Amino acid sequence: MLLNRLEYRLMNNPLRAAFQRYFESRRLLQMGGPMNGGVALEIGCGRGVGVAIILDLFGADTVHGFDLDPRMVALAQARLAKRQERTRMWVGDAAQIASPNAVYDAVFDFGIIHHVPRWRDAVAEVARILKPGGRFYGEEVLKSLVVHPVVRRLFKHPTEDRFDAANLRSAFENAGLALHRWKETCNCVAWFVAIKPGGQDGPRPS
Ligand SMILES: C[S@@+](CC[C@H](N)C(=O)[O-])C[C@H]1O[C@@H](n2cnc3c(N)ncnc32)[C@H](O)[C@@H]1O
Question: Above 60 in pLDDT, residue 205?
Fold first, then answer.
């Protein structure tokens, strides 16, 4: 689901970029370790700040990203114009990812799955496109915040069939992803690293 005007502005804001760069990403790095090479995908990449972080902080060789909103993809392409040889952006839907199976070493979700009506399909798609041993790093907004009256008034999210921590964790399990690290903030936000079993190269200890 596309962002409303308020959330679009909040996401395209230097404060959002600083929070993502200096807090969210560092926490996920601590939980799941660096990539040290390989190919990553960011789902719902917004204006491309996360893609740059995955290159610079996580050490991916190549990062792909897509977003449902063509305006966001255009902003991301402009931001990453000088890094075209290591990045690729497209317009797409997390519930149906335009990718072959088992091609990514890591997938990143900076708060987008709660925007997807068919969110379980998005989790299953992430599992499908990860290589065995690949890592799914993410932070997500949980049901108690999505359905809070103030949040509902200010923002536009799907409100039916939203996930709490237990729902999200069981969707990982159903998709065949093993939870490696999990943290929650006030039953409102979840931080996680999940792994597709079968690889030899486990995550570096956090
Ligand atoms: C809260 S913003 C986060 C943007 C960016 N990841 C960040 O952290 O700044 C959610 C993003 O998900 C995108 N989005 C919403 N539904 C989507 C879907 N089904 N597939 C892909 N992207 C989606 C929105 O257009 C928006 O850019």
Answer: no
